Amino acid sequence: MEHWLTYAVVTTLFWGVWGALIELPEKRGFPATLGYVVWSLTMIPCALVALYFVGWKLETDTRAVVLGTVAGLLGAGGQLALFETLRRGPAYLVFPIVSLSPVISVALAAGLLGESATPRAWTGIVLALIAVPLLAYQPPGASSAARGRLWFGLSIAVCLAWGIQAYVLRFANQTMRSESIFFYMTVTALALAPVAFLMTDRRSARWAPGVPLAAGAIQALNSIGALTMVYAFRYGKAIVVSPLINAVAPAITVLLSLLIYRTFPHRIVAFGMALAAVAFFLMA
Question: Does pTM top 0.90 for this prediction?
């Protein structure tokens, strides 16, 4: 198996499991914004391990710092913006918009980096881009009504942020070490943790002992997946890696949710899962 595919598969597996388990702490009174704080802390050991394997050689030139910080701001900042978006808008409309971020990644990679693919891989890319919003589908009754129109602009902003982040990761990997990129992503995530804490409604936060530790274990899956994602962009093309991860990871989440919670997916989501499976075969 090629290096890029190995790392991409690890990311999709870890993020797929993370997506299936992430609701457990929230259902026990641990807010998602505090989950972000815990996630930022779990990034630290991953960054240290990565730097250890390259002899603690951290790149500190201006270009490296800027690229790593931009990648981190786009990813972590997009997550914080998503919290506010879901407070203002219905999830069944927000998630399909946000899930279109790989379209941005593919367009930038093809247009600015000159990336190309075989006809078979392009077929898989197109199927993945179709599958992602289908996998993000939620019935209208599952969310409250929208409050104003700011949620729409925020949804577009999150979509752009995560789409551009994939391009920046691929671009940065051409001139600097993946380990340095991830280090600056970690620093940025930690820098934004106080913002997430201030966004938390602490009056409604009630959780049992042990829930923060469980949240840490779950968020560690997210952090490890983020590290292997950076490596996937080092060895693989963004036009393939981004759609692959964004299509297959949600499909794994839906499948695990079916097994764990006995929650059967909507037929639209099931169709998206089938497309994601075909896309993975074609791209891999």
Answer: yes
